[in-house]
Amino acid sequence: MAILIVCPGMHDPQWTAPLSEQLRTGALWPGAKHYIFPHHPHWAWSPHALRTWLGTTVALGSPLVFLGFSAGCVAAIATAWACQYQRDYPVEAVIALDGWGVPLVGPFATYRLSHDRYTHVTGAWLGPGDQSFYAEPAVPHQQLWQAPQRVWGWGTANPTAAISGLGQGVGVPHRYMTALQFLGQCLSDYGET
User: Fold this and answer.
1) Which of 137, 119, 124, 134 has its CA nearest to residue 175?
2) What is the tens place of the pLDDT at every residue in 98-144?
3) Domain-wise residue ranges, the chain
4) d(CA 140, CA 32)
5) pLDDT tens for residues 144-167?
6) Is the pTM of this model over 0.85?
7) 3-190: which CATH architecture?
8) Is the distance from CB of 116 to CB of 191 less than 8 angstroms?
9) Nearest residue to 73 (alpha-carbon basis) of 63, 81, 61
10) Are 19 and 150 in contact (CB under 8 A)?
11) Beta strand ranges found along the chain (DSSP E)
Protein backbone atom coordinates (compact mmCIF):
# COMPACT_ATOMS: atom_id res chain seq x y z
CA MET A 1 0.00 0.00 0.00
CA ALA A 2 1.31 3.42 -0.94
CA ILE A 3 1.84 6.17 1.62
CA LEU A 4 0.05 9.45 0.98
CA ILE A 5 2.21 12.57 1.29
CA VAL A 6 0.02 15.67 1.69
CA CYS A 7 1.62 18.94 0.55
CA PRO A 8 -0.41 22.00 1.64
CA GLY A 9 0.00 25.38 -0.03
CA MET A 10 0.91 28.82 1.30
CA HIS A 11 -2.17 29.31 3.45
CA ASP A 12 -3.49 29.20 6.99
CA PRO A 13 -2.75 25.74 8.45
CA GLN A 14 -6.42 25.51 9.49
CA TRP A 15 -7.32 25.10 5.82
CA THR A 16 -5.82 21.60 5.95
CA ALA A 17 -7.65 20.53 9.13
CA PRO A 18 -10.84 19.21 7.41
CA LEU A 19 -8.83 17.13 4.91
CA SER A 20 -6.63 15.84 7.72
CA GLU A 21 -9.75 14.76 9.62
CA GLN A 22 -11.12 12.91 6.58
CA LEU A 23 -7.81 11.07 6.26
CA ARG A 24 -7.61 10.34 9.99
CA THR A 25 -11.10 8.82 10.10
CA GLY A 26 -10.64 6.86 6.87
CA ALA A 27 -13.42 8.75 5.08
CA LEU A 28 -11.16 9.60 2.14
CA TRP A 29 -8.77 6.65 1.92
CA PRO A 30 -9.59 3.80 4.36
CA GLY A 31 -6.62 2.08 5.95
CA ALA A 32 -4.06 4.39 4.37
CA LYS A 33 -1.00 5.74 6.08
CA HIS A 34 -0.49 9.42 5.42
CA TYR A 35 1.82 12.24 6.42
CA ILE A 36 1.19 15.96 6.14
CA PHE A 37 4.23 18.04 5.22
CA PRO A 38 4.61 20.49 8.14
CA HIS A 39 3.19 23.86 7.28
CA HIS A 40 5.53 26.78 6.80
CA PRO A 41 4.64 29.44 4.21
CA HIS A 42 8.15 29.54 2.75
CA TRP A 43 8.45 25.75 2.45
CA ALA A 44 5.19 24.99 0.66
CA TRP A 45 6.75 25.32 -2.79
CA SER A 46 10.20 23.94 -1.88
CA PRO A 47 11.11 20.48 -3.22
CA HIS A 48 14.34 20.62 -1.19
CA ALA A 49 12.45 21.16 2.08
CA LEU A 50 9.93 18.43 1.21
CA ARG A 51 12.67 16.00 0.17
CA THR A 52 14.66 16.63 3.35
CA TRP A 53 11.56 16.14 5.53
CA LEU A 54 10.58 13.01 3.58
CA GLY A 55 13.99 11.45 4.21
CA THR A 56 13.54 11.85 7.98
CA THR A 57 9.89 10.75 8.06
CA VAL A 58 9.27 7.90 5.61
CA ALA A 59 11.28 4.67 5.25
CA LEU A 60 13.31 4.37 2.05
CA GLY A 61 11.66 2.19 -0.57
CA SER A 62 8.12 3.03 0.54
CA PRO A 63 5.80 3.62 -2.43
CA LEU A 64 4.39 7.16 -2.41
CA VAL A 65 1.39 9.10 -3.66
CA PHE A 66 1.70 12.90 -3.48
CA LEU A 67 -1.34 15.13 -2.92
CA GLY A 68 -0.55 18.82 -3.37
CA PHE A 69 -2.62 21.98 -3.12
CA SER A 70 -1.77 25.26 -4.86
CA ALA A 71 1.90 26.09 -4.15
CA GLY A 72 2.30 22.64 -2.57
CA CYS A 73 1.91 21.18 -6.07
CA VAL A 74 5.30 22.65 -6.99
CA ALA A 75 7.04 20.74 -4.21
CA ALA A 76 4.97 17.60 -4.85
CA ILE A 77 5.77 17.20 -8.57
CA ALA A 78 9.43 18.21 -8.23
CA THR A 79 9.96 15.84 -5.30
CA ALA A 80 8.16 13.04 -7.14
CA TRP A 81 10.58 13.46 -10.03
CA ALA A 82 13.58 13.50 -7.65
CA CYS A 83 12.36 10.32 -5.94
CA GLN A 84 11.83 8.66 -9.31
CA TYR A 85 15.22 9.75 -10.63
CA GLN A 86 17.12 8.74 -7.49
CA ARG A 87 15.09 5.52 -7.21
CA ASP A 88 14.83 5.66 -3.44
CA TYR A 89 11.04 5.97 -3.27
CA PRO A 90 8.81 4.52 -5.99
CA VAL A 91 6.22 7.14 -6.92
CA GLU A 92 2.83 5.81 -7.90
CA ALA A 93 0.94 9.07 -8.46
CA VAL A 94 0.81 12.84 -8.08
CA ILE A 95 -2.53 14.54 -7.46
CA ALA A 96 -2.58 18.32 -7.95
CA LEU A 97 -5.42 20.41 -6.53
CA ASP A 98 -5.41 23.84 -8.16
CA GLY A 99 -1.79 23.50 -9.24
CA TRP A 100 -2.30 26.09 -11.98
CA GLY A 101 0.93 26.78 -13.85
CA VAL A 102 2.57 23.61 -12.52
CA PRO A 103 3.72 21.09 -15.17
CA LEU A 104 1.97 17.81 -14.40
CA VAL A 105 3.72 15.06 -16.32
CA GLY A 106 5.79 12.09 -15.29
CA PRO A 107 6.42 8.36 -15.45
CA PHE A 108 3.72 7.94 -12.78
CA ALA A 109 -0.03 8.54 -12.76
CA THR A 110 -1.09 12.19 -12.63
CA TYR A 111 -4.39 13.77 -11.65
CA ARG A 112 -5.44 17.43 -11.82
CA LEU A 113 -8.34 19.02 -9.90
CA SER A 114 -9.37 22.63 -10.56
CA HIS A 115 -11.76 25.00 -8.80
CA ASP A 116 -13.23 26.21 -12.11
CA ARG A 117 -13.30 25.40 -15.81
CA TYR A 118 -10.91 28.25 -16.76
CA THR A 119 -8.18 26.89 -14.47
CA HIS A 120 -8.88 23.39 -15.80
CA VAL A 121 -8.51 24.40 -19.46
CA THR A 122 -5.51 26.72 -19.06
CA GLY A 123 -3.71 24.39 -16.63
CA ALA A 124 -4.01 21.50 -19.07
CA TRP A 125 -1.43 23.15 -21.35
CA LEU A 126 1.20 21.99 -18.86
CA GLY A 127 -0.20 18.47 -18.58
CA PRO A 128 -3.86 17.66 -18.07
CA GLY A 129 -3.22 14.61 -15.93
CA ASP A 130 -4.35 11.09 -16.73
CA GLN A 131 -7.64 12.02 -15.09
CA SER A 132 -8.94 15.47 -14.22
CA PHE A 133 -11.75 17.20 -12.38
CA TYR A 134 -13.10 20.73 -12.57
CA ALA A 135 -15.71 22.35 -10.38
CA GLU A 136 -18.97 23.36 -12.01
CA PRO A 137 -20.30 25.64 -10.75
CA ALA A 138 -16.99 27.30 -9.94
CA VAL A 139 -16.01 27.59 -6.28
CA PRO A 140 -13.44 29.70 -4.41
CA HIS A 141 -9.88 28.34 -4.62
CA GLN A 142 -9.71 27.34 -0.96
CA GLN A 143 -13.01 25.43 -0.98
CA LEU A 144 -11.51 22.72 -3.20
CA TRP A 145 -9.03 21.94 -0.38
CA GLN A 146 -11.19 22.68 2.66
CA ALA A 147 -14.44 21.02 1.63
CA PRO A 148 -14.05 18.71 -1.41
CA GLN A 149 -17.22 16.90 -0.38
CA ARG A 150 -19.20 20.10 -1.17
CA VAL A 151 -17.55 20.80 -4.53
CA TRP A 152 -19.46 19.40 -7.51
CA GLY A 153 -18.05 19.17 -10.99
CA TRP A 154 -16.92 16.97 -13.83
CA GLY A 155 -14.50 14.08 -13.57
CA THR A 156 -12.95 13.43 -16.96
CA ALA A 157 -10.60 10.91 -18.49
CA ASN A 158 -7.93 12.31 -20.78
CA PRO A 159 -7.83 9.98 -23.78
CA THR A 160 -4.64 11.49 -25.22
CA ALA A 161 -2.73 10.27 -22.15
CA ALA A 162 -3.97 6.71 -22.67
CA ILE A 163 -3.29 6.79 -26.42
CA SER A 164 0.28 8.00 -25.91
CA GLY A 165 0.93 5.22 -23.41
CA LEU A 166 1.33 7.66 -20.53
CA GLY A 167 -2.07 6.96 -19.01
CA GLN A 168 -2.08 4.88 -15.85
CA GLY A 169 -5.29 6.23 -14.30
CA VAL A 170 -8.34 4.62 -12.85
CA GLY A 171 -10.63 5.20 -15.82
CA VAL A 172 -12.90 7.88 -14.37
CA PRO A 173 -15.60 8.47 -16.98
CA HIS A 174 -16.84 11.94 -17.88
CA ARG A 175 -19.38 12.28 -15.10
CA TYR A 176 -20.77 14.70 -12.55
CA MET A 177 -19.43 13.98 -9.03
CA THR A 178 -17.95 15.66 -5.98
CA ALA A 179 -14.24 16.43 -5.75
CA LEU A 180 -14.10 14.06 -2.77
CA GLN A 181 -15.57 11.22 -4.85
CA PHE A 182 -13.04 11.94 -7.59
CA LEU A 183 -10.16 11.91 -5.07
CA GLY A 184 -11.42 8.64 -3.62
CA GLN A 185 -11.50 7.04 -7.08
CA CYS A 186 -7.99 8.28 -7.84
CA LEU A 187 -6.65 6.91 -4.56
CA SER A 188 -8.46 3.58 -4.81
CA ASP A 189 -5.79 2.12 -7.10
CA TYR A 190 -3.02 2.73 -4.56
CA GLY A 191 -4.32 1.13 -1.39
CA GLU A 192 -7.06 -0.79 0.31
CA THR A 193 -10.56 0.62 -0.09
Assistant:
1) 134
2) 998 999 999 999 999 999 999 998 888 898 899 999 999 999 999 99
3) 3-190
4) 28
5) 999 999 999 999 887 554 444 444
6) yes
7) 3-Layer(aba) Sandwich (3.40)
8) no
9) 81
10) no
11) 3-7, 34-36, 64-69, 91-97, 109-114, 131-135, 152-157, 175-178
